[in-house]
Amino acid sequence: MSDEMDYEKLLDRAREAMPEDVIRDDQRWGLPEPELIYEGRTTVVKNFQDIIDSIRRDPEHLLGQLLREIGSAGSVEGRRLILKSNISKDKLTEKLEDYVNTFVICGECGKPDTHLVKEGRTQVIECMACGAKRPVKVKKGLKAKEKANVVAIGDELEVLIQDVGRQGDGLAKQGKFVIYVPGVAKGQKVKIRVEKVSGTIVMGRQISS
Known about the structure:
- This protein has about 210 residues and is an alpha+beta fold.
- It folds into 2 domains: about 25-135, Defensin A-like (2-Layer Sandwich), CATH 3.30.30; about 150-209, CATH 2.40.50.140.
- About 25% of the residues lie in helices and about 30% in strands.
- The chain has a 6-stranded mixed beta sheet, with no helix packed on it.
- α3 (about 60-70) crosses α4.
- The longest helix is centred in the first third of the chain and has 16 residues, at about 1-15.
């Protein structure tokens, strides 16, 4: 009997030591439904920040993945996401669920209490609830042609600098996009992070050579 009491005390102490956001009391977690309003050809996700708070991921990371998947331009304004096209609620919900299953949910215990970390060049999901780790496996849903036609803020690209513009910025091309990269020379192959997209004009910053 005393052993059982000691075990219960140890469980209580371990539970008290855990962060509150890890303890879910076995309640089923659910992704908030996107709340949409349409303004002409623009789709506004009113509760985008609530979705971010729920999955605990970098807004720019989710934004980049969404824009790539739905093939639209967009930006975050305050607590809202502004998409420059009409997207149905069903389609947006499907893409959000794909993101959660790929970048959030633990493959072992099925809980969302995870961190997204990098180990070398591999993105890894680390679970705070059960301690499991798994590499991120991105769905190969987009064809190479579709990828070439979508560039979003936060994307990391490897480009070849084909020319230098009048202002001294390096010029590269990817699909229909012309990419400007300051501080590089013609002939360099560099890795960049996209900082601005305006139509088919992209501004990038070198992050490695």
